[in-house]
Amino acid sequence: MSHFKEIPSGNKYIKKAYVAVMLWFVGRAIQAAARVDKEVKREFEKLPEGFTLCLGVLPGGPYMIVGKNEKGRVRYLGWKQNGRHIDLDMKIKSIEAAILMFTFQESTTVATARNRLIVDGEVSHACAIVRVLNIAEVYLLPKHIARLAVKRYPVWSLSRKYIGRIRIYFRSILGY
To answer: With CB atoms 3.0 to 4.6 Å apart as the test, which of 57, 67, 104, 127 could cross-link to 52 if both were Cys?
Structure first.
């Protein structure tokens, strides 16, 4: 039995690169939405000072880290944990599950129901972050795609949807 050669699984570079870009953009969009959208602001106000979220893919990444500082300002902190204290660690179980989520074939709630997401932290904080992710996805995506990405598409005024979308896109691209 000891002479069988173990064959490692192949690396999925293109899928990892796609998910890394999506996590980067969603992280920056969360930062922007926290400054633009009142509902996202309220969700982050309920979270404790110094709160840090890590959303990543097992095994080995990519990751997105978003934190709230003592002043209540939400910042995208990059993809390296660098010894940071993580209050809420959300992991997608595989790159395939991440592809399903980030190609919007499956919403975050469906992925959770199908046991593709691992949460280490307060459940109430995880629910708040899922609501924030849903709002960010509604801002970032066209309506026909966003309906696939969220459980329930919200009814917003045209000014909130379009002006907010433009502001979030600019803030996400420029990084403030």
So the answer is: 67
pTM: 0.85
Using alpha carbons, select from 52, 61, 51 the residue that is nearest to residue 24. 61
Q: How far is CA 14 from CA 7, 10, 17, in A?
A: 21, 12, 5
Contacts of 140 (CB under 8 A, 6+ apart): 25, 26, 29, 146, 165, 168, 169, 172
Peptide bond into 59 cis (omega under 30): yes
Provide the pLDDT confidence category of residue 24 given band limits of 50, 70 and 90: very high
3-state secondary structure of 157: coil
Planar angle of CA 34, 95, 13, nearest 5 degrees: 105
DSSP SS3 for 174? helix
The angle subtended at Cα 123 by Cα 121 and Cα 129, nearest 5°, is: 90
- Tokens, residue 61: 């990444």
**In degrees to the nearest 10, what's the CA dihedral of 136, 138, 142, 146?**
110
**Residue 47 DSSP SS3:** coil
**Residue 105 contacts residue 143 (beta carbons within 8 Å):** no
* More confident: 6 or 128: 128
How far lies 86's CA from each of 13, 14, 100, 122, 136, in Å? 27, 28, 25, 11, 21
